[in-house]
Structure formats: C-alpha cells, structure tokens
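#structure-requests
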Amino acid sequence: MRHRFALAAFAFTTACANYDFSQARTIDGKLDTRKLIADLKASGEESLSEGIWIPLVYCNISSFKASTPGKPTGYEFAHWTGVGPVFMNGTYETALIDPAGTTIESDDRLWLGWSLLLNDRDGRIETIAGARLETTWRLLLLFGYDGSVFYASRS
C-alpha cells in the first residue's frame, strides 16, 4: 500500500530546470546578478529556471529572465516557495535588475495560514536619495504594522 502512495506522489511530482541557481550565489548567499546575466545570454534561452512542483502540496521555483514590457530595461528574478495544503505557507522573492547587474528594486513576502496568521512584506527600491525601505506585517488579521517607510542613506 505504501508503495502505491509513493508511486502516485512521484507521478505528480514535476521537476523542471535549465539552470542551477546555486551556481549564481555569492559566498554570503546573495545573487550574483552579473553571472546570471552572462549565463542567460550564453544559454540562448528566454529564461533560466529551476524548480520542483508537487501539485497543491509543495513548490520551489526560481526564474531569471529579461524584464517584461512596462518595467525598466533589465532583468527579473523570482523565487517562490509554497508548502502545505494548497500552499498554506510560503515565501515569494522578486528583484528587478538593471543591465549592469545592479538590483534596483526587490520585494520579499512571507505568509502563514494563507496570510490569515501572518503576512509579512519587505520592499526595497533604489533611489538617488538612497534605498527606500518599506515594511508591512499583519499577525492574526488583528495586529500589525502598515507601511514603515524610510530611506537608508548612501554610504
């Protein structure tokens, strides 16, 4: 009986990849955006992607591609992880990167219990005055903090 369940779970598991994103991390774990750009150009593909998907139970998907129309010229990185029934808990990370490899905007999100228990968002946008940082969080739909925005001065 256990073998049937394992076989059924394996049949619905989808793994797709044309790139290993661990190759494009610096020693401190950050993205090496210049390497990603060079690897995307060398691959001849529209995007670099890596992921695993178990429908409605687990996913861990990363992608890197040229930015879509309506956004500044450059590149987009996205990483999405979802776990639990119907992705009850998860994280989502995006970054908009200029052609030189500098991150100009990023957004990190975390949710628990379909955002009913915890919904946390951190955004960063580079400006001429420094980085514009924004934090918003909500706990149990009752407690939270909406929109602390401040500028980190350039050093």
